[in-house]
Fold these 4 entries.
Entry 1:
Amino acid sequence: MKTGVLLINLGTPDSPSTGDVRKYLREFLMDRRVIDINPVGRWFLINMIIAPFRAPKSAALYQKIWMKEGSPLLIHGLNLKKKLQESLGNDFHVAFGMRYQSPSIQSALDELRKEKVSRIIVFPLYPQYASSSTGSTIEKVMEQVGEWEVTPEMKFISKFHDSIPYLEAVIDSAKAYDHNAYDHVLFSFHGLPERHILKGDAHYGSGECKLGNCCEVATKGNQYCYRANCFQTAIEVAKRLNIPKEKYTIAFQSRLGKDPWIKPYSDHEIIQFAKDGKKKILAFSLSFVADCLETTHEMGTEYHELFREHGGEKIQLVPSLNSNARWVEAVKEMINS
């Protein structure tokens, strides 16, 4: 009997047109785990304010990163699926889906059901656990499988920020860049509202979250704290690359709205780097395993320009793992562990 592997990433518009981007934003932001406010208020905020006004701007940005074959996130995901299938062999069937838009989680699960797999390994492609990404994805999978008459054995890989195969894949991709040739290293992660972290701590953590140095050490109480997972990822990567603590900064990007998000903020740190006389920065976006709008444009273009505006010279972004050979092997190792 075959084992099914379900790779899942967050999602992407079907095209960089304003209409498709608006459709994507509405599905994404209407998720109660993403914008966790009163449902009526969420509907009004998304459909009357954010989607109408943000969609044209986001569409223009997607047009800048769109590949000839399609969305970068989708293309890298499909390439990973293909290479992983070849590496795992005939005892496995690999499917790929997106939490939002196409290909859907339902279509990927239907593919595995048709193969009559004996069990399914669900692998959300988010290294660090967050309710708004991993939690939402797992919830959707369980909702879909819950409708089946026969539920196969299920295994969920809910986080892998401290997995040795994953860390080794990051190190392998970073070897092309000598951090000693840069004035500083920035580990930038996607941001979250502070309330997401505090709510998670109240439900599963120690109940003593300070949103501070407590994130630097892994404990039972912060094992599902997104901010702690991010700090621990960066610290482990820095250790393996022999980057001293004084030469790197951990920060968070992609804020939305006026509520406080987890700190420090990447754009603020970049401005400060330039003011401090730093000229060359090596940057990692380690909450993404595939290049997308947040890596290619936000970090690779917007932050690079911001740095230059304040006196810096260059931000060099280390590409995401995408579907490179070491990452394929890392995913295989985590699936077989």
Note: The longest helix spans residues 39-65.
Entry 2:
Amino acid sequence: MITPPDFDAAPPVPGWLEPEIAVDLDAGDDPREKCGVIGIYTPELDSATYAYFGLFALQHRGQESAGMAVSDGRRVKTIKDMGLVSQVFTRDRLDALKGHLAIGHTRYSTSGVSEVQNAQPIFCQYEEGEIAVAHNGNLVNTKSLRQELIAEGEVFGAQHASSDSELIARIIARNIGQGIEFAVGEVMRRCHGAFSITVLTPKAIIGFRDPYGIRPLTAGTIGERGYMVASETCAFGPVGGKPVRELAPGEMVIIDDSGMRFSQGAPTAKPSMCLFEFIYFARPDSRMYGQLLYQARYRMGQQLARQWPVEADIVVPVPDSGIPAALGYAREAGIEFREGMMKSRYIHRTFIQPSKAIRELGVRMKLTPLEEHLAGQRVVLVDDSIVRGTTTDKIVSMLRDAGAREVHVRITAPPIIKPCFYGINMATEAELISANLSTEALRQRLGCDTLGFLSIDRAVDSVGRPKADFCLACFNNDYPIPIPNEAREDSPQDGVGEFSVTDPGQPTLIE
């Protein structure tokens, strides 16, 4: 028997926010993935509440929009909107989503503009029924694929979504009459790029990964008769789920009244899990490649201490993503670990327009230095990555203003020299500071005493898998899936920058 989670135990859910301009105060130099997907099958209970709690656990993978599609075995109903999970889904909205099958999605835009029509899941009606599709990743052949579908009779009006996810939904809908396995096989054959996807039909949930396995996806159980699939294993615990295994590249899982079964939709190409999932994106309590990410990041910190030792008094993390690596560095170097900054965990999207003066506060909106911990100290500052360099210099300056005598910056990601085309909204090559400055020039720009990046080999060793199992393109320009000119020319970089602005518009209900 499945015990439903206690809705009242969730974080406070505000009433619906009137459509004003939403400003992301938490957007800084960090790369953004991103998306999170989930699928829930609970035969005895409504699945929407389970999907809701699972999406909370995946909120870090996308804070721009959220959506959910639910089926009662006959019809598919979808609700999606701009905003956080708690803003989009009130109790009344969840009560309106009756059914025992559900998929959900949290999103940052990587393909298609930041509009509610591009929020997911994508709903698609076809001659034999209806489906909903939630996608994590990015296609590199979107333009040519769209042209192919138009030539085959598909009609895309101005009102249709501009994301590559709609193309995936159309391909599935066109081919599902020949069976879901055939339809998924067509997606894998025609779509080039990264995709981990959940699909909802009136009677089933399907999850699948691209043949390279760039983005994660794990299947598991809920109670005795329930099943689920999610981007990360951290989504299982809040709903009482148990991960069974990660899907292999090119594999699909089909969940329906007969249970959960796996099928290979396409041959595995070259396993190419994104290394950035281990460095930054995924939650530290998730497991990928059989590894707990917290431990992988701890080992990265240890490797940093071996590669870039320095005489110092304290090791300070940039919260929260730098904490495991900072602990590893401190342990390996025999230097005291000390929190030097406190992070406000409630600075995300605000519907109150800040003044120019507030905007210019930048990183100080999120981080408060602990001057008593920093004054007179030689500090090793540990962070996960440097993309544009627009945040690290402010943190270094803040530590010096708080009295730090020296600041030595250590980064667990190797220098990022190329953009991502597989679902990370990072930056153009012209904006990537390590692609344009030497390490010494960057050190001077940041204003730190020394600067050290973890090498690619040491980062990979920290995960404990062969180097060949990872996508390392942003670090070494070796793209596992060839990038056509259409993707290089039209590489979407929407929703980036120190502050991103979106209009939440009106809530979208499709049934």
Note: The radius of gyration is 22 Å.
Entry 3:
Amino acid sequence: MIEVQSLSKKFADQWALRENTWSVKEGRSLGLLGPNGAGKSTTMKIMTGLLCSTEGHVKIDGFDILKEPVEAKKRIGYLPETPPLYEELKVVDYLRFICGLKSVPKNQWEEQIDQAIAKMTLNEVAYRPIRVLSKGFRQRVGISQTLIGEPKILILDEPSVGLDPHQVYELREIIKSLKKNHIIVLSTHILSEVQQICDDVVILDKGVVKAKGSLNELLKARQATHLVEIQVQKSTDELLKNLEKLPAVNQVQLNQSTLQLHLLEEGVNNLDLYLSEIIKHKCGVQSVTQKHQQLEDVFIEVTR
């Protein structure tokens, strides 16, 4: 289990994190999200003991990362945004080096290396120098080193950055397979990845937690407002003002020729009212689409 309690970090006179509290339970995976500069990497560096917090604490499986760093770090595998690779080494030699760093008993080295290579499907490049590998394979090597020492928790900072769509798909499937045996904390800007991989979500903005909870809870809570898109031939300011005055309308937006109506539940069942208003203004209705809430919608809403 990971417990983040009242976590704050200050650089000079600037707070990078402020009073963050959340947790990840056994058997769960968490997406740590936020715009650039929100504090995601800072949080991960504190969780792994690379930075000290100004206030609050992080406990890894009950061990405080600052007070009991050796025991806490035994339980963590960490992939920073730039993987710490020694490019002159072959993949297997690099993993042997990692075994030494993590104090893995020498009689377990080959078994753990074989397992990491198999899980990350690195067999075809295991005896090649890292410098000749593609970006996708380098990312896999970076994740493979997190598996050495058999940690319970994997902390992955932007594992898909710089990969093409095929490589993103392959890496996503690999991370999903790792969920069976590890708690995963994943930071990424690819929100569809989070929806496919993670059980829980924490959204940061300017160092503050703006939303947290299970993915299903966050989506369900914000489906109290439904999005209906109406393609129109034209629009007028008067139409927008009149639509905003109608019952169950939370917000009206115009995106080029598309009216976006954010409606309460009762409004979805009374679309004729809004269509009639558009027709009355002779703006011409071309299509009507009701959109289901996605994580991207929640992200934009809470970090707007």
Note: The mean pLDDT is 90.
Entry 4:
Amino acid sequence: MSGNQPNTVAVIGGGTMGLGIAQVFRFAGSRVILCDADEPASHTAKRDLAARTERQVRAGLRPDTHLAAAADVDVVFPATAAVADADVVIEAVPEVMALKQDLLRDISHATRPDAVIATNTSSYPIDQLAEQVRLPDRFLGWHWFAPPEWVPCVEVIRGPDTSGDVVTRSKDILTGVGKRPAEVANAPGFVANRLQMAMFAEAVRCVEEGVASPAEIDEIISGSVGFRLPHYGPFAIADMAGLDTYVSVYECLRDAYGDRFTPPQRLRDLVAEGRHGTKNGHGFADYTPDDQDRLLSERDARYAAMNDFVRGLDRG
């Protein structure tokens, strides 16, 4: 491994996620070894990677040099051979617990002891997967999001035995290839899917109740909640909107739809303490008058730029 950049990365799994992850590391300069379920499938995955890259180059999303880089990905089968010389091993097979456990057991016995082993799982507890891993101190979760070559966030999930050094190395590696790693606890669904599934459940309920169609809900989310999320997370947005307002909205929804909309206790406590957000300088964060002016000016500039960008896409 040279600095934060791994010399060799083995990606086990040639589906949508594995191919996107392979692109990220290959185009950052690492040697990438690709392995799928069998030898023919592994070679098919390499052809799919080349076609995916060519399509992106034609669309102007990548430079022409990436075509040669994609063609230079190595195919090695079986997985135990593919991981033998890797600095980083990324398991990206389908979300089937037994499949992941069996594979992790096999590859952890075939890797170098100093190799980082990461599982790309959307929801499985890392402690259950770690049970099958030899030297589990170098094992952890890297939850990428589809399509992984473009989405910047990767959730980094520490297992019960993961060393602090491996967590730090993981964050450095991911930052080095242009990602934004965020460490989360080993909880079911981690963070992003827990939030995403909660929102999607309400979206489906709105359709079932005849409140709006799927197309209308997509328009509402992309033009309201989604419009703001590229710039700010839910806590900053709540502080700018007003935590006391949030409590009032929760109470209205709870009265209409039941206890699933009961205001969270932490939110109620903050409002009871007089922490209403940016408007009085205290919310989930604290704001000086200069902070308030700077944040709201930044918000206006970002939202105006986003509005212009979206309108340009619509015209295009």
Note: Strands lie at 8-12, 31-35, 74-75, 88-91, 116-119, 139-143, 153-158, 180-184.
